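Protocol step 4 of 6: structure prediction from sequence.
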Amino acid sequence: MLKTFEGRPAATAGRGKDPVNEPMIRHWCEAMGDAHPAYTGPDAIAPPTMLQAWTMGGLSGHTDRSPAYEELFDLLDGAGCTSVVATDCEQEYLRPLRPGDVVTFDAVIESVSARKTTKLGTGHFVTTRMDVRADGEPAGTHRFRILKYAPAEKPAAQAAAQPTAEPAPETRTGTQPRPRRPRPVVNRDNQGFWDGVREHKLLIQRCTGCATLRFPWLPGCNTCGSPHWEAVEASGAGTVFSYVVMHHPPFPAFDPPYAVALVELAEGVRMVTNITGVPYDKVRIGLPVHLEFLRVDEELELPVFRGSEG
């Protein structure tokens, strides 16, 4: 029955609510921290990964959505698959999008999987393909995949467990060692950062060509392209710029739920890190945090940021 939905339209003759425009490009680049010069100036193009952004309907949605999608969701809901999670997306770019381009699109339900069992529960993967045009010319393809599933019941012991405010160092329970955190990839481009961590310093890069600060460590400057730089020690002060609470997928070395944050340092760069000192549900955008170093095991120490509920 579900296979009959494959090939049916999810949206027909859709139209972006706004033409490609400079303010949205600027907002996107600021949010992503992307200062590439191709996205500004008289010959600016939109970042390729914005392909889907121009097709989104916002809070009010689109009026051109096909009833087939609603019918499919009603069937899945009726089968107990009442929860949904986005799993992945794929994009193919055929031409750059420029300010003034009018975006139109068609979407089709490309595939509906057989019932699958995952750690979240059992359900079906639904893939939608969107063909995007700019001023009538093919501009790209966007495939978006979700899992529509029936939530798995948690074991009683897991449901009763209380999350800790911060990860604990690896210890032994009985004869079983606690699983180790994955090791960071250290190479010639970021060796200096990890050397700083060993000395309890948070080092960021400063371009000696244009003085732009950058993080994470890169071999060249995104602003001027210079390969020359110097290391600068950050003050350790920052605020939570954005965050997500991780529930799934569970990983042996971590105890979900826990908060992963994008912290904006006082110097203006941002880094992904753990927040300690406060429960995961007390982390908020704008929360002041300060640097500390967490000993994970006998070999690994990581820079994290401690917040305060007060």
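Step 5 (inspection) to follow. The chain has three domains: 2-151, 185-233, 237-310.
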